[in-house]
Amino acid sequence: MTKPGTFVVHATDGNARRGTLSTAHGDIQTPIFMPVGTQGTVKSLSPQDLEEMNAQIILGNTYHLYLRPGDELVARRGGLHKFSNWNRPILTDSGGFQVFSLKGIRKLSEEGVEFRSYIDGSKHFFSPEKAIEIQMNLGSDIMMVLDECVGYGADRGYTEKSLEMTTRWAKRCRERYPAGSGDQLMFGIVQGGFFKDLRTRSAEQLCSLPFEGFAIGGLSVGESIPEMYEQVHHTAPLLPAEKPRYLMGVGTPLDLLEAVSAGVDMLDCVLPSRNARNGTLFTSQGKINIKKAAYKEDDSPLDPNCNCYTCRNFSKAYLRHLYMSKELLSYRLNTYHNLYFYLDLMQQVRDSIENGTFAQLKARYEDAYAA
Ligand SMILES: CC1(C)O[C@H]2[C@@H](O1)[C@@]1(COC(C)(C)O1)O[C@@H]2CNc1nc2cc3nc(N)[nH]c(=O)c3cc2[nH]1
Ligand SMILES: [Zn+2]
Predict the structure, then answer these.
(1) Is the CB of 148 under 6 A from ligand 1?
(2) Which residue ranges does the record assign to the tRNA-guanine(15) transglycosylase-like domain (predicted)?
């Protein structure tokens, strides 16, 4: 087995990269989209479904799994892979974003962040070290450092102070689990808000530390698409070319393509799974909402160009009926298709980088998804 953390770039097409990241639970072909499984499950899908659609890695979340069922309970059951019977790679977010984004009282200090549980209001405290210890208990293949994701609209002064603390926290995370001390990888997270010089400073400080990969944080927090793209194109090239680059919390199909064109290798977002549950489905011809009355007697598949279980076996009329009747199968079939669509899109992206046609692929989807 290749040493976990090894990242090889096989081909490039412009700034887009085709690579392979090795982890203790197998290799990840990049660029890659990572389905979000916040509580150790990708809502409404089984590990078998995810393997069938060639999901290579899924996300878990430190904040949620620490609060319920508890990271130590998971550790006693052999870790998150064994507990959830997902034997491919897992990346866990550190909880920083959840603590800052979920409502509720929290107190931030140099030591860490105090917050209340969204389940029972009980008080908890995450230090950078604690956030890493939880991820060690979960046994995730890629751990994220504890960081502060400043809100959209934070002023320069606050953003600057915050990024300096995020760097100090990143150092503490790395010291808690030094590079090479085990099979788990650790990624640093670049902050700096929407100030390019602060993003540059954050990247310089973090990239001097021995992380196996680097994430672009602090985006997809309510900003406009052009603002997000501007920061992605500014920040991605600042990160080491020989390490994987992960853009957190992004995004739509067009966002994925734009990020890859900037040199991003890994992405995650709740959009495909969350939108599936409200009937918004992504297809090769653009987005459709299955609620529409127009589909009431439409016997055609959701997407004639999609080879997924949903598109091969059910009509729009039936999918609309399930949605309107609030049937559980609606969640499952819609989520299956949306994630299959995202994963298949990234397979097309990987192929296009290998044969130098990425720009054409991106243009084709821009036409299909033109506002
Ligand atoms: C709050 C919730 C559930 O998280 C999703 C989702 O809503 C929503 C709401 O609008 C969409 C775009 C659909 O995604 O925004 C979140 C996705 N954006 C995002 N996730 C992030 C995760 C992060 N983790 C860390 N450790 N540090 C970060 O800086 C960070 C930044 C991030 N930005
Ligand atoms: Zn489909």
Answers:
(1) no
(2) 15-369
pLDDT at residue 26 tops 70? yes
* Closest-CA residue to 73 (of 138, 166, 121, 5): 138
93 Cα distance to chain centroid: 9
| CB of 217 closer than 8 Å to CB of 149 | yes
Annotated binding-site residues for Zn(2+) read 306, 308, 311, 337
Residue 338: name the closest of 6, 12, 44, 9 by CA: 44
The ligand whose atoms approach the alpha carbon of 282 most closely is 2
Size of the chain in residues:
371
Q: What is the residue with the minimal CA distance to atom 28 of ligand 1?
A: 217
Domain-wise residue ranges, the chain: 6-268, 276-369
How many helices (DSSP H) and strands (DSSP E) are in the chain?
15, 16
The per-residue pLDDT for range 40-88, each reduced to its tens digit, is 999 999 999 999 999 999 999 999 999 999 999 999 999 999 999 999 9
- What CATH homologous superfamily does 6-268 map to? Queuine tRNA-ribosyltransferase-like (3.20.20.105)
362 alpha carbon, distance to own chain's centre: 20
The tokens for 84 are: 């959830």
Average pLDDT, the chain: 97
Smallest CA separation from ligand 1 atom 12, residue:
220
State how far the Cα of 206 lies from the Cα of 210, in Å rounded to an integer. Answer: 9
Could you tell me the pTM of the whole model? 0.98
Atom 19 of ligand 1: nearest residue by CA position: 249
Spatial separation of the C-alpha atoms in residues 335 and 331, rounded to whole Å: 6
The count of other CB atoms within 10 Å of the CB of residue 124 is 16
ipTM greater than 0.90, yes or no? Answer: yes
Cβ neighbours of 93 (radius 10 Å): 30
27 catalytic, yes or no? no
Ligand that lies nearest to the alpha carbon of residue 336, given by its number in the listed order = 2
- Evaluate: CB of 257 within 6 angstroms of ligand 1: no
Please identify which of the residues 71, 268, 303, 344 carries the catalytic annotation.
268
Of ligand 1's listed atoms, the one at least distance from the Cα of 218 is 29
71 is catalytic: no
